[in-house]
Amino acid sequence: MTAQLRPLEPGDESWLADLHNRAFSDYALPARLDAAALATYMAETGVRHDLSFAAFVDGHPASFCLGALRGGRASVRGEGTDPAYRRRGLGAEVLDATVEAATAAGARDLSLEVLDGNDAALALYDRHGFRRRRLLLGYELDPPRVGLRARMRGGLGPLPGAEAARLVEAWGWCDPPWQLLPASLERLPAFTLAGEAVVFGRRRGSRFWLYALAVDPARRGRGVATRALAGLGAETIAIPALVPEEWDTAHGFLEAAGGVLDPHRQWEMTRTLGA
């Protein structure tokens, strides 16, 4: 076996999407992306080509690791190996390359998320010095019903992502995981409820994938968040497994709104760099 490693380059998304889909074909939550969707995800989460690597075996794409950097904080935004090339150390090689590149770029720490129960991945990251910091949880719920009076007060309207992200930060957004950082959220579609609340997410068919919901502190406790959820106009609302377990207020609200915990949860793992 002859393996070669190189950083990603613009335009690699086409074959990388195919490799991604093969790598996650037997995952507990199979993920399929086309080149455009993968490029969008990479842009949203700040992936840099110079921090991302692929391993090739006899010229065939076999393994990849996507690295991102914001300030002194780096993150692995995806890693996987084609099942046909597993147990050859390729996952460790691309991970090591991203760690080395992130360190050279000035990152102080590196984070990633891995599905709870993915023992092979957890063992890989344990061996590479990552520690399990906290669990990230997800939910699914039906939109709440609100009365006529609440509906007459107006619904959600679009808001530029950067402006919405600034509001979230100003209203208090405590130690979010990478995909919920304001710099990540601002690349998602954003909406506002008369300036009292902001919502980030994407509609896919009849389901709305909700990434963040924040309410002006001066308007909390008045049903604003419930009105915002009702205004999404979706049959179901899905919240990815990105809500830190210590965000008690968020969990309390979602449970009170009828949210059901997603059985799949993630570990956020971190590693100090340059020490």
Structural key phrases:
275 residues; Aminopeptidase; 13-stranded mixed beta sheet; alpha+beta
Q: Do you know the CATH topology of the largest domain?
A: Aminopeptidase
CATH homologous superfamily of the largest domain, by name? Gcn5-related N-acetyltransferase (GNAT)
Task: Please state the CA-atom Rg, rounded to the nearest Å.
Answer: 20 Å
Oligomeric composition of the shown chains = single chain
What would you say the CATH architecture of the largest domain is?
3-Layer(aba) Sandwich
Total number of beta strands: 13
How much helix, percentage-wise, in residues?
25-40%
Distance between the termini: 34 Å
As for the number of domains, it is 2
Structural class: alpha+beta
Query: Unreliable runs, pLDDT <50, ≥5 residues?
Result: 146-152
Number of helices: 9
- Largest sheet data: 13 strands, mixed
- Summed over residues and divided by their number, the pLDDT gives a mean of 92
